[in-house]
């Protein structure tokens, strides 16, 4: 029943207004004959047309206003004109005619005082209807503007998220370029050198095959990197990225109370090392922004001999949190994309006590998902 009422709210409102406008005719508040009763009911029924034809609703209500003095239908119709009609001329004409009818409907005008009271009555009643209608019109426009603004913000957030993913893909491409391309290039050079130094035809053929395959791999890798960097920042330099060797410097911060327990084997793939570093960096940055004074715990270990599990958790803030602008959580989105490309997962979860934790899980191989 409630859902039906919500869907048919406009119809219910119109029927209610018609009933109110018809009361003076049914109860004889302003009518004394059949003709006046009919005119009053016609004016009330005309309110059913007020949403689509507001000027017609005013025209149907005016005869009853001038003949009986009943103002209800005319005032409602005038307010609707002020709400729905954009023409200033039409609004001025409707307001003037309604004002005239209201003024003339005053009981008796036998003196200057009566005339002033009649004018005040007509002005306040018609002016109030126009003011309410214009206020409703402004409210409707404001609501529509807010809806458009919300849609624009959602679109902006979606584009920002896409940009964050594209930037992270570009970062991965740069890191692959720094490490993989360099290693494959060395393979090509060493294979070429072996071909020159060896006198064994079989070794020369094998070295040539290795060199050819390495060159082909390098070409395909560069094409793949172009795809990864297609939507990323073109001006980003191809510079070496931090690894686990730099993790100590990151954790040795003076503005945070950090307890670290890093138990990871040496020789991990460079992509995994950088993913761990970036996750810890993001976690510490979030603590600085959203949990000042909190204690931070960073743990990293090998789980079941197959995967790396990294957790960065913090307690509830102990100092006032500075106001922060609304964000689209782009750092988390970028880390999630990085983990997915490496065949792992990333998640974050707040605690009931105000704490917060992010978790990165990556396979030891660091191989991307197919």
UniProtKB/TrEMBL annotation:
<dbReference type="GO" id="GO:0000155">
    <property type="term" value="F:phosphorelay sensor kinase activity"/>
</dbReference>
<keyword id="KW-0175">Coiled coil</keyword>
<dbReference type="GO" id="GO:0016020">
    <property type="term" value="C:membrane"/>
</dbReference>
<dbReference type="Pfam" id="PF07730">
    <property type="entry name" value="HisKA_3"/>
</dbReference>
<dbReference type="InterPro" id="IPR011712">
    <property type="entry name" value="Sig_transdc_His_kin_sub3_dim/P"/>
</dbReference>
<feature type="coiled-coil region">
    <location>
        <begin position="135"/>
        <end position="169"/>
    </location>
</feature>
<keyword id="KW-0418">Kinase</keyword>
<dbReference type="InterPro" id="IPR036890">
    <property type="entry name" value="HATPase_C_sf"/>
</dbReference>
<keyword id="KW-0472">Membrane</keyword>
<dbReference type="GO" id="GO:0046983">
    <property type="term" value="F:protein dimerization activity"/>
</dbReference>
<keyword id="KW-0808">Transferase</keyword>
<keyword id="KW-1133">Transmembrane helix</keyword>
<feature type="domain" description="Signal transduction histidine kinase subgroup 3 dimerisation and phosphoacceptor">
    <location>
        <begin position="168"/>
        <end position="231"/>
    </location>
</feature>
<feature type="transmembrane region" description="Helical">
    <location>
        <begin position="53"/>
        <end position="78"/>
    </location>
</feature>
<keyword id="KW-0067">ATP-binding</keyword>
<keyword id="KW-0547">Nucleotide-binding</keyword>
<dbReference type="InterPro" id="IPR050482">
    <property type="entry name" value="Sensor_HK_TwoCompSys"/>
</dbReference>
<protein>
    <recommendedName>
        <fullName>histidine kinase</fullName>
        <ecNumber>2.7.13.3</ecNumber>
    </recommendedName>
</protein>
<feature type="transmembrane region" description="Helical">
    <location>
        <begin position="90"/>
        <end position="109"/>
    </location>
</feature>
<keyword id="KW-0812">Transmembrane</keyword>
<feature type="transmembrane region" description="Helical">
    <location>
        <begin position="115"/>
        <end position="135"/>
    </location>
</feature>
<keyword id="KW-0597">Phosphoprotein</keyword>
<feature type="transmembrane region" description="Helical">
    <location>
        <begin position="12"/>
        <end position="33"/>
    </location>
</feature>
<dbReference type="GO" id="GO:0005524">
    <property type="term" value="F:ATP binding"/>
</dbReference>
<keyword id="KW-0902">Two-component regulatory system</keyword>
């Amino acid at each position: 029943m409630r859902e039906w009422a919500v869907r048919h709210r406009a119809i219910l409102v119109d029927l209610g207004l018609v009933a109110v406008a018809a009361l003076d005719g049914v109860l004889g508040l302003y009518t004394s004959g059949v003709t006046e009763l009919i005119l009053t009911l016609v004016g009330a029924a005309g309110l059913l047309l007020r949403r689509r034809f507001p000027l017609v609703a005013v025209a149907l209500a005016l005869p009853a206003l001038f003949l009986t003095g009943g103002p209800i239908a005319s005032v409602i119709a005038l307010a609707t004109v002020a709400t729905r009609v954009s023409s200033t001329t039409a609004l001025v004409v409707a307001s003037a005619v309604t004002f005239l009818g209201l003024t003339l409907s005053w009981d008796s005008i036998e003196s200057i005082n009566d005339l002033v009271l009649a004018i005040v009555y007509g002005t306040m009643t018609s002016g109030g209807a126009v003011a309410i209608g214009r206020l409703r019109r402004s409210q409707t426009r404001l609501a529509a503007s807010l809806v458009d603004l919300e849609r624009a913000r959602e679109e902006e957030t979606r584009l920002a998220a896409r940009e964050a993913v594209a930037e992270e893909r570009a970062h991965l491409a740069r890191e692959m370029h720094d490490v993989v391309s360099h290693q494959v290039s060395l393979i090509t050079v060493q294979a070429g050198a072996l071909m020159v130094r060896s006198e064994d035809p079989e070794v020369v053929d094998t070295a040539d095959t290795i060199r050819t395959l390495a060159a082909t791999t390098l070409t395909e890798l560069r094409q793949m990197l172009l795809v990864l960097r297609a939507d990323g920042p073109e001006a980003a330099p191809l510079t070496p990225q931090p690894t686990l060797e730099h993790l100590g410097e990151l954790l040795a911060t003076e503005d945070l109370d950090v307890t670290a327990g890093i138990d990871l084997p040496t020789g991990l793939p460079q992509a995994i090392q950088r993913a761990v570093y970036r996750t810890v960096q993001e976690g510490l940055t979030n603590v600085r922004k959203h949990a000042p004074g909190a204690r931070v715990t960073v743990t990293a270990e090998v789980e079941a001999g197959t995967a790396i599990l990294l957790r960065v958790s913090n307690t509830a803030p102990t100092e006032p949190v500075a106001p922060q602008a609304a964000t689209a959580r782009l750092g988390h989105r970028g880390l999630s994309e990085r983990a997915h490309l490496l065949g792992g997962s990333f998640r974050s979860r707040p605690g009931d006590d105000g704490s917060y934790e992010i978790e990165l899980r990556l396979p030891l191989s660091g191989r991307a998902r197919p």
